[in-house]
Amino acid sequence: MKNTAVRQAGLMQFLYYFALAGGANYFTLYYKQHLVDFSGNPQYEYIGVILLVQALVAFFSPLLAGYIADKYQITNRLISLCAFGVSLGTAVVVIPGLGPFVHMTILRRLWLLLPGAVMTQFFLRPLVPLIDTGSLKALEEQDGHADYYGRIRVLGSIGWILCCLLVGRWLDFSGRLVDAILVYGLVFAVLGFISLSGFSTEVKKVDLSWEHLLSDRVLRVLIVLTFIRMISFGMGFAFTGVFLSEMNLTYSQMGLAFGLAAVLEVPFFFKGHVLREKWGSEFLILFDLLLQALRFIIFYLFPQVESPAFYIIVQMLMGLGVCLHINGIVPLLNQIAPPHLKATYQNLYTVAVSLVIIVNGLASSLIVKALGTRSLMGICSLIMAAAFFYTALSLVLPKRKNNPDPALQDSGL
Q: Which of 278, 273, 241 is nearest to 257 (CA)?
Protein backbone atom coordinates (compact mmCIF):
# COMPACT_ATOMS: atom_id res chain seq x y z
CA MET A 1 0.00 0.00 0.00
CA LYS A 2 1.87 3.01 -1.28
CA ASN A 3 -0.24 6.11 -0.79
CA THR A 4 -2.14 7.46 2.19
CA ALA A 5 -5.59 6.90 0.69
CA VAL A 6 -4.92 3.19 0.07
CA ARG A 7 -3.59 2.70 3.60
CA GLN A 8 -6.63 4.57 4.93
CA ALA A 9 -8.93 2.31 2.92
CA GLY A 10 -7.24 -0.81 4.30
CA LEU A 11 -7.61 0.41 7.87
CA MET A 12 -11.29 1.21 7.30
CA GLN A 13 -11.91 -2.27 5.92
CA PHE A 14 -10.22 -3.79 8.99
CA LEU A 15 -12.16 -1.67 11.50
CA TYR A 16 -15.52 -2.12 9.78
CA TYR A 17 -15.41 -5.90 9.72
CA PHE A 18 -13.82 -6.11 13.18
CA ALA A 19 -16.73 -4.07 14.52
CA LEU A 20 -19.30 -6.03 12.50
CA ALA A 21 -18.10 -9.34 13.92
CA GLY A 22 -18.41 -7.93 17.42
CA GLY A 23 -22.15 -7.49 17.10
CA ALA A 24 -23.68 -8.85 13.92
CA ASN A 25 -23.15 -12.48 14.93
CA TYR A 26 -24.85 -11.94 18.29
CA PHE A 27 -27.62 -9.37 17.79
CA THR A 28 -30.36 -11.98 17.37
CA LEU A 29 -29.14 -13.90 20.42
CA TYR A 30 -29.03 -10.60 22.35
CA TYR A 31 -32.62 -9.81 21.37
CA LYS A 32 -33.65 -13.36 22.24
CA GLN A 33 -32.09 -12.97 25.69
CA HIS A 34 -33.98 -9.76 26.50
CA LEU A 35 -37.30 -10.30 24.76
CA VAL A 36 -38.73 -13.15 26.83
CA ASP A 37 -42.10 -13.52 28.56
CA PHE A 38 -42.66 -14.31 32.25
CA SER A 39 -42.22 -18.02 31.54
CA GLY A 40 -38.84 -17.46 29.90
CA ASN A 41 -40.08 -18.08 26.34
CA PRO A 42 -38.38 -15.98 23.62
CA GLN A 43 -40.80 -13.71 21.78
CA TYR A 44 -39.65 -14.26 18.22
CA GLU A 45 -42.42 -12.04 16.86
CA TYR A 46 -40.89 -9.08 18.72
CA ILE A 47 -37.51 -9.91 17.19
CA GLY A 48 -39.20 -10.02 13.81
CA VAL A 49 -40.76 -6.59 14.39
CA ILE A 50 -37.32 -5.12 15.19
CA LEU A 51 -35.80 -6.67 12.07
CA LEU A 52 -38.73 -5.47 9.93
CA VAL A 53 -38.87 -1.87 11.16
CA GLN A 54 -35.11 -1.33 11.05
CA ALA A 55 -35.03 -2.69 7.50
CA LEU A 56 -37.88 -0.42 6.37
CA VAL A 57 -36.08 2.67 7.58
CA ALA A 58 -32.62 1.55 6.46
CA PHE A 59 -33.87 0.91 2.91
CA PHE A 60 -33.55 4.61 2.09
CA SER A 61 -30.09 5.30 3.50
CA PRO A 62 -27.97 3.66 0.72
CA LEU A 63 -29.92 5.54 -1.94
CA LEU A 64 -29.37 8.81 -0.14
CA ALA A 65 -25.72 8.12 0.64
CA GLY A 66 -24.87 7.06 -2.91
CA TYR A 67 -26.45 10.18 -4.38
CA ILE A 68 -24.75 12.55 -1.94
CA ALA A 69 -21.36 10.84 -2.28
CA ASP A 70 -21.43 11.14 -6.08
CA LYS A 71 -23.04 14.57 -6.14
CA TYR A 72 -20.57 16.25 -3.78
CA GLN A 73 -17.62 13.81 -3.84
CA ILE A 74 -17.49 13.50 -0.04
CA THR A 75 -17.21 9.75 0.45
CA ASN A 76 -14.97 9.95 3.53
CA ARG A 77 -17.19 12.48 5.31
CA LEU A 78 -20.22 10.24 4.82
CA ILE A 79 -18.27 7.25 6.16
CA SER A 80 -17.46 9.24 9.30
CA LEU A 81 -21.07 10.40 9.74
CA CYS A 82 -22.45 6.88 9.29
CA ALA A 83 -19.89 5.29 11.64
CA PHE A 84 -20.74 7.76 14.41
CA GLY A 85 -24.44 7.16 13.76
CA VAL A 86 -23.99 3.40 14.20
CA SER A 87 -22.11 3.98 17.44
CA LEU A 88 -24.86 6.23 18.86
CA GLY A 89 -27.60 3.77 17.91
CA THR A 90 -25.68 0.94 19.56
CA ALA A 91 -25.44 3.00 22.77
CA VAL A 92 -29.24 2.79 22.99
CA VAL A 93 -29.36 -0.93 22.14
CA VAL A 94 -27.01 -1.88 24.99
CA ILE A 95 -29.10 -0.19 27.72
CA PRO A 96 -31.30 -3.26 28.50
CA GLY A 97 -28.14 -5.33 28.94
CA LEU A 98 -26.57 -3.03 31.52
CA GLY A 99 -26.86 -3.77 35.23
CA PRO A 100 -29.23 -0.99 36.35
CA PHE A 101 -31.76 -1.80 33.61
CA VAL A 102 -31.88 -5.62 33.48
CA HIS A 103 -35.17 -5.84 35.43
CA MET A 104 -37.23 -3.75 33.03
CA THR A 105 -40.44 -5.18 31.59
CA ILE A 106 -40.33 -6.74 28.15
CA LEU A 107 -42.21 -3.83 26.57
CA ARG A 108 -39.80 -1.26 28.01
CA ARG A 109 -36.91 -3.28 26.67
CA LEU A 110 -38.58 -3.41 23.27
CA TRP A 111 -39.03 0.36 23.21
CA LEU A 112 -35.31 0.79 23.82
CA LEU A 113 -34.12 -1.94 21.47
CA LEU A 114 -36.35 -0.84 18.59
CA PRO A 115 -35.20 2.81 18.12
CA GLY A 116 -31.58 1.87 18.80
CA ALA A 117 -31.68 -0.91 16.21
CA VAL A 118 -33.38 1.35 13.67
CA MET A 119 -30.76 4.08 14.06
CA THR A 120 -27.92 1.55 13.96
CA GLN A 121 -29.11 -0.08 10.74
CA PHE A 122 -29.93 3.21 9.03
CA PHE A 123 -26.34 4.36 9.31
CA LEU A 124 -24.76 0.91 8.94
CA ARG A 125 -26.28 0.03 5.58
CA PRO A 126 -24.35 2.55 3.40
CA LEU A 127 -20.96 1.90 5.01
CA VAL A 128 -19.83 -1.10 2.96
CA PRO A 129 -20.52 0.48 -0.46
CA LEU A 130 -19.00 3.78 0.66
CA ILE A 131 -15.82 2.12 1.98
CA ASP A 132 -15.62 -0.06 -1.14
CA THR A 133 -16.08 2.99 -3.39
CA GLY A 134 -13.28 4.80 -1.59
CA SER A 135 -11.05 1.72 -1.72
CA LEU A 136 -11.57 1.25 -5.45
CA LYS A 137 -11.01 4.95 -6.14
CA ALA A 138 -7.78 4.99 -4.09
CA LEU A 139 -6.47 1.99 -6.05
CA GLU A 140 -7.38 3.56 -9.38
CA GLU A 141 -5.57 6.77 -8.46
CA GLN A 142 -2.50 4.81 -7.35
CA ASP A 143 -2.28 2.08 -10.01
CA GLY A 144 -4.58 3.23 -12.79
CA HIS A 145 -6.86 0.24 -12.12
CA ALA A 146 -8.61 -1.51 -9.23
CA ASP A 147 -7.54 -5.09 -9.94
CA TYR A 148 -6.00 -5.46 -6.47
CA TYR A 149 -9.16 -4.62 -4.57
CA GLY A 150 -8.97 -8.01 -2.84
CA ARG A 151 -5.66 -7.08 -1.21
CA ILE A 152 -7.44 -4.26 0.61
CA ARG A 153 -10.60 -6.22 1.34
CA VAL A 154 -8.59 -9.07 2.86
CA LEU A 155 -7.84 -6.78 5.82
CA GLY A 156 -11.57 -6.82 6.55
CA SER A 157 -11.49 -10.62 6.70
CA ILE A 158 -8.54 -10.50 9.11
CA GLY A 159 -10.44 -8.06 11.32
CA TRP A 160 -13.52 -10.30 11.25
CA ILE A 161 -11.50 -13.40 12.22
CA LEU A 162 -9.70 -11.68 15.10
CA CYS A 163 -12.87 -10.21 16.58
CA CYS A 164 -14.85 -13.46 16.26
CA LEU A 165 -12.21 -15.40 18.12
CA LEU A 166 -11.61 -12.75 20.79
CA VAL A 167 -15.27 -11.96 21.44
CA GLY A 168 -16.31 -15.63 21.47
CA ARG A 169 -13.64 -16.44 24.03
CA TRP A 170 -14.55 -13.41 26.13
CA LEU A 171 -18.25 -14.27 26.12
CA ASP A 172 -17.48 -17.72 27.48
CA PHE A 173 -15.61 -15.98 30.30
CA SER A 174 -18.10 -13.18 31.04
CA GLY A 175 -21.40 -14.72 29.91
CA ARG A 176 -22.56 -11.18 28.99
CA LEU A 177 -23.84 -10.88 25.43
CA VAL A 178 -23.98 -7.11 25.90
CA ASP A 179 -20.16 -7.09 25.82
CA ALA A 180 -20.21 -8.09 22.14
CA ILE A 181 -22.62 -5.25 21.35
CA LEU A 182 -20.40 -2.82 23.25
CA VAL A 183 -17.39 -3.84 21.14
CA TYR A 184 -19.54 -3.25 18.06
CA GLY A 185 -20.41 0.31 19.07
CA LEU A 186 -16.95 1.30 20.33
CA VAL A 187 -15.07 0.14 17.23
CA PHE A 188 -17.52 1.96 14.96
CA ALA A 189 -16.75 5.12 16.96
CA VAL A 190 -13.05 4.55 16.21
CA LEU A 191 -13.90 4.12 12.52
CA GLY A 192 -15.72 7.44 12.62
CA PHE A 193 -12.61 9.24 13.87
CA ILE A 194 -10.27 7.43 11.46
CA SER A 195 -12.41 8.37 8.44
CA LEU A 196 -12.53 12.09 9.19
CA SER A 197 -9.81 12.47 6.56
CA GLY A 198 -8.89 10.32 3.62
CA PHE A 199 -10.36 9.73 0.20
CA SER A 200 -11.70 13.20 -0.52
CA THR A 201 -11.63 16.41 1.47
CA GLU A 202 -12.82 18.94 -1.10
CA VAL A 203 -16.56 19.36 -1.62
CA LYS A 204 -17.38 19.76 -5.30
CA LYS A 205 -20.75 19.53 -6.95
CA VAL A 206 -21.08 17.14 -9.90
CA ASP A 207 -23.94 17.00 -12.40
CA LEU A 208 -25.30 13.45 -12.42
CA SER A 209 -26.81 11.66 -15.40
CA TRP A 210 -29.22 8.82 -14.64
CA GLU A 211 -30.08 7.36 -18.04
CA HIS A 212 -27.39 4.71 -17.60
CA LEU A 213 -29.29 3.15 -14.71
CA LEU A 214 -32.28 2.38 -16.90
CA SER A 215 -30.35 1.02 -19.88
CA ASP A 216 -27.75 -1.13 -18.12
CA ARG A 217 -28.91 -4.75 -18.56
CA VAL A 218 -26.11 -6.25 -16.49
CA LEU A 219 -26.88 -3.95 -13.57
CA ARG A 220 -30.52 -5.07 -13.61
CA VAL A 221 -29.52 -8.75 -13.55
CA LEU A 222 -27.11 -8.17 -10.68
CA ILE A 223 -29.77 -6.38 -8.65
CA VAL A 224 -32.30 -9.21 -9.15
CA LEU A 225 -29.60 -11.78 -8.30
CA THR A 226 -28.77 -9.85 -5.13
CA PHE A 227 -32.44 -9.71 -4.18
CA ILE A 228 -32.98 -13.48 -4.49
CA ARG A 229 -29.64 -14.41 -2.89
CA MET A 230 -30.21 -12.12 0.06
CA ILE A 231 -33.61 -13.64 0.85
CA SER A 232 -31.77 -16.86 1.64
CA PHE A 233 -28.50 -15.50 2.99
CA GLY A 234 -30.14 -12.87 5.20
CA MET A 235 -32.68 -15.21 6.79
CA GLY A 236 -30.02 -17.83 7.40
CA PHE A 237 -27.46 -15.38 8.79
CA ALA A 238 -29.93 -13.83 11.23
CA PHE A 239 -30.55 -17.20 12.89
CA THR A 240 -27.26 -19.04 12.40
CA GLY A 241 -26.21 -18.06 15.92
CA VAL A 242 -29.51 -19.34 17.32
CA PHE A 243 -29.18 -22.56 15.31
CA LEU A 244 -25.63 -23.17 16.58
CA SER A 245 -26.68 -22.46 20.17
CA GLU A 246 -29.46 -25.07 19.77
CA MET A 247 -26.75 -27.48 18.62
CA ASN A 248 -25.13 -26.85 22.02
CA LEU A 249 -22.11 -24.91 20.79
CA THR A 250 -20.50 -22.64 23.37
CA TYR A 251 -19.79 -18.97 22.64
CA SER A 252 -16.14 -19.83 21.97
CA GLN A 253 -17.19 -22.53 19.51
CA MET A 254 -19.62 -20.14 17.84
CA GLY A 255 -16.80 -17.60 17.64
CA LEU A 256 -14.66 -20.25 15.95
CA ALA A 257 -17.49 -21.07 13.54
CA PHE A 258 -17.94 -17.43 12.53
CA GLY A 259 -14.24 -16.57 12.66
CA LEU A 260 -12.87 -19.58 10.81
CA ALA A 261 -15.56 -19.03 8.18
CA ALA A 262 -13.45 -16.05 7.12
CA VAL A 263 -10.09 -17.86 7.15
CA LEU A 264 -10.50 -19.08 3.58
CA GLU A 265 -11.28 -15.51 2.55
CA VAL A 266 -7.69 -14.41 3.22
CA PRO A 267 -5.89 -16.21 0.34
CA PHE A 268 -8.84 -15.86 -2.00
CA PHE A 269 -9.16 -12.12 -1.45
CA PHE A 270 -5.41 -11.65 -1.77
CA LYS A 271 -5.47 -13.46 -5.12
CA GLY A 272 -8.84 -12.08 -6.21
CA HIS A 273 -7.45 -10.50 -9.37
CA VAL A 274 -6.02 -13.89 -10.41
CA LEU A 275 -9.38 -15.60 -9.84
CA ARG A 276 -11.22 -13.03 -11.95
CA GLU A 277 -8.64 -13.25 -14.72
CA LYS A 278 -8.76 -17.04 -14.82
CA TRP A 279 -12.47 -17.72 -14.24
CA GLY A 280 -14.28 -14.40 -14.63
CA SER A 281 -16.78 -12.67 -12.36
CA GLU A 282 -19.72 -14.80 -13.55
CA PHE A 283 -18.11 -18.05 -12.38
CA LEU A 284 -17.19 -16.58 -8.98
CA ILE A 285 -20.75 -15.40 -8.40
CA LEU A 286 -22.24 -18.76 -9.41
CA PHE A 287 -19.81 -20.77 -7.28
CA ASP A 288 -20.77 -18.70 -4.23
CA LEU A 289 -24.43 -19.59 -4.74
CA LEU A 290 -23.59 -23.29 -4.88
CA LEU A 291 -21.50 -23.13 -1.70
CA GLN A 292 -24.18 -21.25 0.25
CA ALA A 293 -26.88 -23.70 -0.88
CA LEU A 294 -24.64 -26.61 0.15
CA ARG A 295 -24.05 -25.09 3.61
CA PHE A 296 -27.76 -24.69 4.29
CA ILE A 297 -28.71 -28.14 3.07
CA ILE A 298 -26.02 -29.76 5.26
CA PHE A 299 -27.34 -27.88 8.30
CA TYR A 300 -30.83 -29.14 7.42
CA LEU A 301 -29.85 -32.77 6.84
CA PHE A 302 -27.49 -33.14 9.81
CA PRO A 303 -28.93 -31.18 12.75
CA GLN A 304 -27.95 -33.61 15.52
CA VAL A 305 -24.24 -34.19 14.95
CA GLU A 306 -22.57 -34.12 18.36
CA SER A 307 -19.18 -32.79 17.24
CA PRO A 308 -18.94 -28.95 17.24
CA ALA A 309 -16.10 -29.31 14.70
CA PHE A 310 -18.66 -30.50 12.14
CA TYR A 311 -20.65 -27.25 12.33
CA ILE A 312 -17.49 -25.15 12.38
CA ILE A 313 -16.24 -26.78 9.18
CA VAL A 314 -19.61 -26.46 7.42
CA GLN A 315 -19.84 -22.80 8.43
CA MET A 316 -16.50 -22.19 6.67
CA LEU A 317 -18.37 -22.63 3.38
CA MET A 318 -20.07 -19.31 4.13
CA GLY A 319 -16.80 -17.38 4.24
CA LEU A 320 -15.46 -18.94 1.06
CA GLY A 321 -18.70 -18.20 -0.76
CA VAL A 322 -18.88 -14.60 0.48
CA CYS A 323 -15.28 -14.06 -0.64
CA LEU A 324 -16.01 -15.34 -4.15
CA HIS A 325 -19.21 -13.29 -4.34
CA ILE A 326 -17.50 -10.04 -3.33
CA ASN A 327 -14.50 -10.73 -5.57
CA GLY A 328 -16.92 -11.14 -8.45
CA ILE A 329 -19.57 -8.49 -7.92
CA VAL A 330 -17.81 -5.47 -6.36
CA PRO A 331 -15.14 -5.00 -9.09
CA LEU A 332 -17.82 -5.85 -11.67
CA LEU A 333 -20.09 -3.05 -10.44
CA ASN A 334 -17.14 -0.67 -10.40
CA GLN A 335 -16.28 -1.57 -13.97
CA ILE A 336 -19.73 -1.15 -15.47
CA ALA A 337 -20.39 2.12 -13.59
CA PRO A 338 -19.82 5.44 -15.38
CA PRO A 339 -17.12 7.54 -13.66
CA HIS A 340 -19.71 9.87 -12.10
CA LEU A 341 -21.86 7.04 -10.66
CA LYS A 342 -19.32 4.82 -8.88
CA ALA A 343 -20.84 5.23 -5.41
CA THR A 344 -24.37 5.00 -6.79
CA TYR A 345 -23.73 1.61 -8.42
CA GLN A 346 -22.20 0.20 -5.24
CA ASN A 347 -25.08 1.55 -3.16
CA LEU A 348 -27.72 0.18 -5.56
CA TYR A 349 -26.34 -3.26 -4.74
CA THR A 350 -26.91 -2.45 -1.07
CA VAL A 351 -30.40 -1.11 -1.83
CA ALA A 352 -31.32 -4.52 -3.25
CA VAL A 353 -30.04 -6.09 -0.03
CA SER A 354 -32.03 -3.57 2.04
CA LEU A 355 -35.22 -4.25 0.13
CA VAL A 356 -35.03 -7.94 0.98
CA ILE A 357 -34.22 -7.36 4.63
CA ILE A 358 -37.49 -5.44 4.98
CA VAL A 359 -39.42 -8.69 4.77
CA ASN A 360 -37.02 -11.53 5.51
CA GLY A 361 -36.31 -10.52 9.11
CA LEU A 362 -39.94 -10.90 10.08
CA ALA A 363 -40.41 -13.88 7.75
CA SER A 364 -37.47 -15.78 9.23
CA SER A 365 -38.68 -15.07 12.78
CA LEU A 366 -42.13 -16.45 11.97
CA ILE A 367 -40.65 -19.51 10.24
CA VAL A 368 -38.48 -20.24 13.27
CA LYS A 369 -41.42 -19.78 15.63
CA ALA A 370 -43.62 -22.13 13.57
CA LEU A 371 -41.14 -24.69 12.21
CA GLY A 372 -37.80 -24.21 13.98
CA THR A 373 -34.34 -23.19 12.83
CA ARG A 374 -33.69 -26.48 11.01
CA SER A 375 -36.62 -25.93 8.64
CA LEU A 376 -35.41 -22.38 8.06
CA MET A 377 -32.06 -23.76 6.89
CA GLY A 378 -33.83 -26.09 4.46
CA ILE A 379 -35.92 -23.26 3.02
CA CYS A 380 -32.79 -21.12 2.64
CA SER A 381 -31.09 -23.87 0.63
CA LEU A 382 -33.99 -23.99 -1.86
CA ILE A 383 -34.01 -20.22 -2.35
CA MET A 384 -30.24 -20.15 -2.87
CA ALA A 385 -30.59 -22.87 -5.51
CA ALA A 386 -33.19 -20.71 -7.27
CA ALA A 387 -30.71 -17.81 -7.26
CA PHE A 388 -28.13 -20.07 -8.89
CA PHE A 389 -30.42 -21.09 -11.75
CA TYR A 390 -31.59 -17.51 -12.34
CA THR A 391 -28.00 -16.26 -12.52
CA ALA A 392 -26.82 -19.10 -14.75
CA LEU A 393 -29.58 -18.31 -17.25
CA SER A 394 -29.53 -14.51 -17.08
CA LEU A 395 -26.02 -13.21 -16.34
CA VAL A 396 -24.17 -13.49 -19.65
CA LEU A 397 -20.94 -11.52 -19.79
CA PRO A 398 -18.91 -11.05 -22.99
CA LYS A 399 -15.63 -12.87 -23.38
CA ARG A 400 -12.54 -11.19 -21.97
CA LYS A 401 -10.14 -9.71 -24.45
CA ASN A 402 -7.19 -7.67 -23.22
CA ASN A 403 -8.72 -6.83 -19.88
CA PRO A 404 -7.98 -8.76 -16.69
CA ASP A 405 -11.61 -8.49 -15.67
CA PRO A 406 -14.65 -9.14 -17.89
CA ALA A 407 -15.37 -6.10 -20.05
CA LEU A 408 -19.03 -5.37 -20.29
CA GLN A 409 -19.03 -3.88 -23.76
CA ASP A 410 -22.70 -4.69 -24.38
CA SER A 411 -23.96 -3.79 -20.92
CA GLY A 412 -25.99 -0.95 -22.32
CA LEU A 413 -23.49 1.80 -21.40
A: 241
